[in-house]
């Protein structure tokens, strides 16, 4: 049988289930981008709130792309299992905070109605970096992106996050409802500011008066989210369904660690997430830099090594001493770019354990996805600061060279490398292994959306990048890392 409201009472006592009456929960949040992360993070904290009796914060979850999550969880009354994994131990909990799932391309009007519902006060987002339709080097809207062009012409049947937010805001204004608060939970530095800037840029193109309303009335607090949530595998699905005694088509698996820091700017109210350990602060930036630069930056470097050397998971790569030593060097350099209010070294200590967690099975291929969008934010951002200060940046530049090599057709075992990166694929990527190392780097530096126009002109950077890439090509990633560590 399938997990559902009807079968819930059959679960073993060891599985935690919603202690509230789901029928009495009303929608207060619309979430855009219902992927694994949302279901293992925000939806869990909201489930806590509902358990505490804050029943006005139920979630309407939407996908702006694939129907996969809805197809899996709608037949289960939108229930699914959240499984915490740490080494051998495992804890399971059924989450009930998602009231409804909507696939936006199929039912844009239904999503707009929910976003315009006066009871809904917050829209949260995890739409990946590419969902922001932006040139990350210049932080400006990709105005010629087909979704933007479409949304400017079809304002009541939008596709992009900006089209939906603008149309919903227009309706709410007309109906005299309170403005939405927009909470981005994506891994973008200053995510709230970026969201607001891009939304305003989009609004100015169609309705300058509405843009001015948004500027003064819509709060876009910044947030920092930290919890490793790998994509669910078929093996997870089977193991969890067996343990439940009921089949769950799409459970989520996560590590026990979490940190969720949010700028406390919710003019129209918010759930009391602090009761679940969420931190509300005045300024998120120091935390966000720490997480993006220390965790995400090293994650991307590890993912590149995994792609090049054929190491499937973070734990596999972490098992290699040269990788651990290289990441230590990477952290020592990037820690210098952090605000003194945060302790990067302590955070890195915790990461050593988190990366070693073998039960998570976090795939290097998944982390390497969309790398052309991630590298500018998590690696090139701190690199620019180090270069400006003439501070040590060899390991960070080496990580960029690793990324370039990881975009080749084949790994060091001669197997094809799977690259899940639409923006990179749009670019005419060279067949690296048939070119000289220096020529490959020169070609990559013309990829303006990743490198901007400044870095290709920085001689220190270009020379060090070419030397690192040459070593990786000539000696292999792990041997080149060992040589790097000795030099
Ligand atoms: P996922 O692949 O499970 O889900 C991605 C979601 O983004 C899907 O709902 C998809 O439809 C949507 N999406 C993809 N491209 C889009 C586009 N162009 N426009 C609109 N929506 C789009 O991934 P996930 O693990 O849920 O991660 C999503 C985001 O959450 C990450 O990109 C990151 O910003 C943030 N995050 C994830 C983790 C993690 O460990 N997984 C940790 C911290 C933050």
From TrEMBL:
Chain ranges of the Mannitol dehydrogenase N-terminal domain: 28-275
UniProt lineage: Bacteria, Pseudomonadati, Pseudomonadota, Alphaproteobacteria, Hyphomicrobiales
Organism, scientific name: Agrobacterium salinitolerans
UniProt protein name: Mannitol dehydrogenase family protein
Annotated InterPro entries: 6-PGluconate_DH-like_C_sf (IPR008927), 6PGD_dom2 (IPR013328), Mannitol_DH (IPR000669), Mannitol_DH/Oxidoreductase (IPR050988), Mannitol_DH_C (IPR013118), Mannitol_DH_N (IPR013131), NAD(P)-bd_dom_sf (IPR036291)
GO molecular-function terms, A-Z: oxidoreductase activity, acting on the CH-OH group of donors, NAD or NADP as acceptor
Residue ranges of every copy of the Mannitol dehydrogenase C-terminal domain listed in the record: 283-472
SUPFAM superfamilies linked: 6-phosphogluconate dehydrogenase C-terminal domain-like, NAD(P)-binding Rossmann-fold domains
Membrane-spanning parts: none
Pfam families referenced in this protein's UniProt entry, alphabetically: Mannitol_dh, Mannitol_dh_C
UniProtKB keywords: Oxidoreductase
